[in-house]
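User: Fold this; tokens only.

Assistant: Input:
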Amino acid sequence: MKQCKYLPAKAVEFCFECQDFPCENLRKLDKRYRTKFRMSMLENLAFIKKSGIEKFLKQQKERFTCPECGGIICVHDRKCYNCLESRDERTSSTND
């Protein structure tokens, strides 16, 4: 996050490693993303903490890969960058 003093300084790799977790900036970002894009930064970080970054990346690749063409589905508009079709049903699930 651009207002964080710990991440740019590499004092932490993930926000959940910070003594201030979850900070006010992260809570605001999480609320905005939950409302606009149906995803949670806090849930994502909890998943990474529990299961590791590799499992998280695998999960996200499955979640945001277009089932029709294999392109990438944008979290912001839920459209595939390749075929430009709306893939709303693919991104409506929550983290496992």
